[in-house]
Amino acid sequence: MALWQTIILAIVEGLTEFLPISSTGHMIIVSSLLGISQFEFTGVFITSIQFGAILSVVFLYWRRFIQSFDFYLKLFVGFLPFGIMGFLLKDVIDVLLKDVTVVAVSLVIGGFILLFIDKYFDRAPDTDQQPTFKQAFFIGLFQCFALIPGVSRAAATMVGGLTQGFNRKSSAEFSFLLAVPTMFVITAYQMLKSYETIKPEDLKMLAIGNVIAFFVAIAAIKFFVNFLTRYGFRAFGIYRIIVGVGILVLLAMGYDVNLV
């Protein structure tokens, strides 16, 4: 992987990880367009630079991580459904991750959901809302939908928060926080599975990618919270539909954008 490809993928990761547009879907599509989707290290890189995005959440919300032990228990309860389902379906997920068609269809379906989600749920008061253990678990169940590439972990958990009576801001912030254990486990698993195949030059690319993803994700989170609070999810729904339909059109025209 060349340095310029590393930089592009890291920027895409930082921009999309916490937005409801599917970072995994975008990484799959971009890596395919860059012509590097067939390399084993590309898959390792796509997963591992999520660590930089994790650190951006810890950096921005560090006070939440020192408030109480209950906070960690709620994150664990929220992560548990995803962890169990991910372990049971890991072979199926590996297959789906190689299919851009799945990503495109998921983007479109999720886009239509986001178009109407603001109208379906009454807007809760703009106060800081913290989940109960039951609410954290239900949001965790919604996170399981993100095992399908293109669904978006952020979108699934934010919608889950809205179903529990959260306002947009609180739904987004708990989604960010729940990403920390979720993405840490995914990254750790990927590194453990692939460490024997990683070369010294690959470590350099991983370091650069994580640093870039960290700073870009900080900017993306700040932008997203402000935008979502004011305008809602509709714009992201439109974007998802445009990207998803665009990919499906390319596939229908015979362009091979699937991962090898």
UniProtKB/TrEMBL annotation:
Instruction: Name the catalysed reactions.
Output: di-trans,octa-cis-undecaprenyl diphosphate + H2O = di-trans,octa-cis-undecaprenyl phosphate + phosphate + H(+)
Keyword flag Transcription: no
The GO annotation for biological process reads: cell wall organization; peptidoglycan biosynthetic process; regulation of cell shape; response to antibiotic
Give the residue spans that cross the bilayer. 6-29, 41-65, 71-89, 96-117, 174-192, 204-225, 237-255
- Recite the UniProt keywords alphabetically: Antibiotic resistance, Cell membrane, Cell shape, Cell wall biogenesis/degradation, Hydrolase, Membrane, Peptidoglycan synthesis, Transmembrane, Transmembrane helix
A single GO cellular-component term on record: plasma membrane
Q: Which GO terms describe its molecular function?
A: undecaprenyl-diphosphatase activity
Pfam families linked to this entry = BacA
In terms of superkingdom, the source organism counts as Bacteria
Q: What is its EC number?
A: 3.6.1.27
Q: How does it sit in the membrane?
A: Multi-pass membrane protein
Q: Which subcellular locations apply to this protein?
A: Cell membrane
As for family, the record states: Belongs to the UppP family.
The misc remark on file is: Bacitracin is thought to be involved in the inhibition of peptidoglycan synthesis by sequestering undecaprenyl diphosphate, thereby reducing the pool of lipid carrier available.
Which HAMAP family does this one have?
Undec_diphosphatase
What does it do?
Answer: Catalyzes the dephosphorylation of undecaprenyl diphosphate (UPP). Confers resistance to bacitracin.
What is the name of this protein?
Undecaprenyl-diphosphatase
